[in-house]
Amino acid sequence: MKATPRAINSYIFFKLPSCYFTGVRVKTIDQTCCVTSVRHRWINQNPFKSMFWAVQGMAAELATGALVMASIAQSDAKISMLVATNNARFDKKATGRITFSCEDGLLIKDTIAKAIQTKQGQSCWTKAVGKDSLGAVVSEFNFQWTLKVRP
Description:
- It contains 4 helices and 6 strands.
- It has helices at about 5-15, 15-20, 55-75, 105-120, and strands at about 25-30, 35-40, 80-90, 95-100, 120-130, 135-150.
- Strands 1-2-4-5-6-3 form a 6-stranded antiparallel beta sheet.
- About 35% of the residues are buried.
């Protein structure tokens, strides 16, 4: 799969429907950065009239995971990917349009190259920062991706 916003958004429609129907979309992706976006709506809100933390987590994980998927595709190697652990921090209520960005593409590429070279599983921590339309940080998610070359 070519790593374009349209291709990834089609992928999540078929493979991650809960992500798609809550409004999570990839806006931009390149070698170093991926940006996802989700708008606070009735379907993704919590009882406190802000975006449910799990929806923010899906948008954040997609921002990091799309970079991992793109780097794996470019490597031409069979590599499995899995989130080993994650953590998050919430700074303010998420309302309106929230944009998550991950700028760890080069770190991911280096980790994949090391996994291919050593034939050992490798891991790396990636970060996605969520901001509202005014640029204020609403949440920050960290994901530890494990990458292993498959035989």
